[in-house]
Amino acid sequence: MLDSNIQYLKGVGPSRALKLQKLDIYTIGDLLNYFPVKYEDRRRVKKINEISEPGKYLLKVKIVEKPKHTKLKKKMTMIKAICKDDTGFIALTFFNNDFLLDKLIPGEWFYVFGNVKIAFGKFETANPEIERADKDWKAGRILPVYGLTYGLTNNEITKLVKTALETYYDRIQNILPEEIIREHGLTSRREAIRNLHFPSDSRKYSLAKKTMAFEKLLIMQLGLFNIKNNFSNEISHIKIKKRDLAERLLTSLPYKLTSAQLRVIEEIKEDLKGNKIMNRLVQGDVGSGKTVVAVYAMLAAVSSGYQASMMAPTEILALQHYETVKECLNLAGIDIKAEVLTGSTKAKEKEEILTKLKAGEIDIIVGTHALIEEKVEFKNIGLVVTDEQHRFGVRQRARLSNKGKAPHIMVMTATPIPRTLALMIYGDLDISLIDEMPPGRQRVITYVITEKEKIKAYDFIKEHLNKGRQAYIIAPLVEESENLDLNSAVEIYKELKSSYFSGYKLGLLHGKMTNIEKEEVINKFYEGKISLLISTTVVEVGVNVPNAAVMMILNAERFGLAQLHQLRGRVGRGSHQSYCILVNESKSKKSRDRMNILKRTNNGFIIAEEDLKIRGPGDFFGVRQHGLSKFEIQNIVNNVETLHQVQLISKKIMTENPGLTGPDYCNLKGEIMNLFKDETIIFN
Predict the structure, then answer these.
(1) Is 351 a residue whose pLDDT tops 60?
(2) Which domain range does residue 249 map to?
(3) Is the pTM higher than 0.70?
(4) What pLDDT does residue 514 have?
(5) In terms of domains, do 363 and 377 share one?
(6) Is 78 exposed, middle or buried (0-12, 13-18, 19+ CB in 10 A)?
(7) Is 640 exposed, middle or buried (0-12, 13-18, 19+ CB in 10 A)?
(8) Same domain, yes or no: 261 and 342
(9) Residue 387: helix, strand or coil by DSSP?
(10) Residue 298 — φ and ψ, nearest 5°?
(11) Could you give the dihedral angle defined by the CA atoms of residues 586, 589, 595 and 600, in that order, rounded to the nearest 10 degrees?
């Protein structure tokens, strides 16, 4: 069956099975669901004189003379073969492929597929795929390209998928009920899987994609609806009716809350005093004031005699939330005990915190993943707050809430997600929206420039540094990559430190640094000991330096709009006019249009809606850790209309057949139980 161990598939064995496991492929079913990340169209053989720009091409060429073999250095050799078709010549270069020397016979015809470069009117390709033209090869087909791991080639995975399809094709059963397949013009699951791996034409591929999207989304949506129904029906033993400390905070704040913040506080108040467990998502743009709302909710819990916890995805963000909590307590003159617990909390201090937490001597605890460790015990946890929840996943959130007697749950995110998508991704939560910015918050002015204008931008940054301001330069990679021509944080840091910004205090920050190293750099930046911070997207969340006034993002075309907006939110946090400079190194119209959206608006929700229209929902789905791989989601789910349809079907099923009874729903029910196996799924 499809749950058979992958090592027993013909051509796998124990050694290759271990490599496949690195791709989360453990069973035959896993392999069949491991869809290509892209495809190479090899249906048409190009003539050499038809190639007008560099790119990947399929050619049929004849070797015209004996290839030249050269030893370049100790461990590198090169073979150069001159080939032609009836329209022109091309040079094939192979590095460290000496076995080809005897196979590249002059006068023989070959299929060649590779990256063709053009220099001074001459054509060349390095290390292309090559096969004799008289063999039944890959020409004339659309070839799948899979995500790979070390030691596995695309060819190997392609062959294994073919073997699995040939052996198990008849055993692939439909997950979707027949009525849904008929009503929405879908195809069978076995046909969908075959056409996603080996599409014969675009129509069959589109239908396969739509079918699998329906299936994956329906499984996820029904599971989330089920969890929400179970939460909604679960009676809360935690009644938070006293709110004197929380109300004292509101009266002591030196500013007025926005109407959006007050509306969300009212929604939370209703949840907390009701008979059901609160399970609420608070969505708000960068700087909209979610943290104060969270502190209000935590103080309400403490007023009623309970403990509250707040979990953040990074140490930096956890420490900033802790500082905000302390600031709020000081403002309101509230004498309660708040503590912070992170991975770098010293052992003795951690032991002390855990003892006090268990004894109920700590009222509010702020922390990172350290809060969900087994040793962490509460006396009477009443409210669990998680920030940037998409970085945790439902299961980690559940582990924190399981530390008490079903505490109330509040989830916060600054990632703007369109409502359509939020309902799909966070289907198990009630959604609140803080869609208004506090008064006085300055709009960040955004410029879009090309690579050629970078020096002017550096001069612009210098002007602001000279006025005492600080700045960020964001690069998409940590180190230089041979495969991608992108700016690297390490290289940019070295270059700028020794050239344009040699007289300034520079800092480097990236994800490969330890937490202590990151903390040290960020603290120096916060204290003004670093003027210009060269960083990767590690600063996307939780770095709050009010004196930073310029954000420059290199290779901006490589980022999603929502991510660019998050990065832009790192500036404009103080009283100084702030700027964001997007360096767009793509010449495509689509890229220009995307950048212009950011130039036009600072509203994260408008940006998210526009991003959804341009790119489809694929990228947003990476935010939910629900067992759906990024390849499945990014390459299957790209149609907003499909999302709408699945939502409507899900609601209909939950109304008419909530228990998913009947033989047609048996497989669907099984898949939901499997995907949400770590959570409480009860079909009534």
Answers:
(1) yes
(2) 233-434
(3) no
(4) 82
(5) yes
(6) middle
(7) middle
(8) yes
(9) strand
(10) -65, -40
(11) 160
